[in-house]
Design goal:
The chain is mainly beta. Helix content is 14%, strand content 46%. It has a domain at 97-244: Porin. It has helices at residues 2-29, 66-71, and strands at residues 97-109, 114-127, 132-143, 153-165, 173-187, 196-211, 214-227, 230-244.
């Protein structure tokens, strides 16, 4: 009986020591908890936010204002794929208007009469590109004895059309050509014929730039007119100046 009681006590004592041994074995292999999980000051609460210490900025550090960053220009050289800037649309100074005026010599020949006339020409051109412009032109001339001494012929040519430039550069000579259509008015009047008729003007000239705003011009034109129930083949030449603006 005593032996039975001794065996029971040994078994109970052994079974009571097993949980403590298992706990010590498990705790020996488990890594230590991070410092940010350790309760601070013995508190029962666990802080999940790690403590971070910010280093002070050096004394030489100067923050850049946001306004300076937004207003700083961006250089195209810093962009390797940026396209090159387009060429200027007109001459180096951006002039679009040409106002020309000067002397004009006109030879008008027809079946009823012929006359050599002197007068003035003026034209206004507006450049749409660096090589093309729209143009309006007026020529007024008079002179010669027609049918009777002292009877002067009068000639007016109003035309409009297009002009083509070459080498439109204020530092060089600039040739050009134009083609214009309009009306012509010639006096004296011939019986049963109108003073007015169709006109076609084609020719060209060259401008010599004295400065970006002023050039000198020489020009010549063939003029086809329709008067007196027939066609007239005439020509005119002129010299003058041009204002560029």
């Amino acid at each position: 009986m005593k032996r039975l009681v001794f065996v029971v006590l040994v078994v109970l004592a052994f079974s009571a020591s097993l949980p403590a041994q298992q706990a010590s074995y498990l705790n020996a292999d488990r890594p230590a908890a991070p410092s940010f999980l350790t309760p601070a000051g013995g508190s029962s609460e666990v802080s999940l936010v790690p403590s971070v210490t910010l280093a002070a900025a050096p004394a030489s550090f100067q923050p850049v204002p946001s306004a300076a960053l937004s207003s700083a220009p961006v250089s195209s050289a810093a962009l390797p794929n940026a396209p090159a800037p387009p060429p200027p649309p007109l001459d180096d100074f951006g002039n679009r208007w040409d106002l020309a005026a000067g002397y004009e010599y006109v030879h008008f020949g027809s079946a009823p009469f012929s006359a050599n006339l002197s007068g003035l020409h003026t034209s206004l051109a507006y450049s749409l590109t660096d090589w093309f412009a729209v143009e309006g032109s007026v020529v007024a001339a008079f002179g010669g004895d027609v049918f009777a001494p002292g009877e002067t012929a009068k000639y007016a040519l109003l035309t409009g059309g297009g002009r083509i430039y070459w080498n439109r550069d204020p530092k060089h000579w600039s040739p050009w050509a134009h083609a214009l259509v309009g009306v012509v008015h010639v006096n004296p009047q011939i019986a049963d014929s109108s003073k007015n008729g169709f006109a076609l003007q084609a020719g060209g000239g060259v401008d010599y730039f004295f400065n970006p705003r002023l050039s000198f011009r020489g020009e010549g034109d063939y003029v086809l007119t329709r008067l007196y129930s027939g066609n007239q083949n005439n020509f005119q030449i002129g010299v003058g100046f041009v204002l560029h603006f």
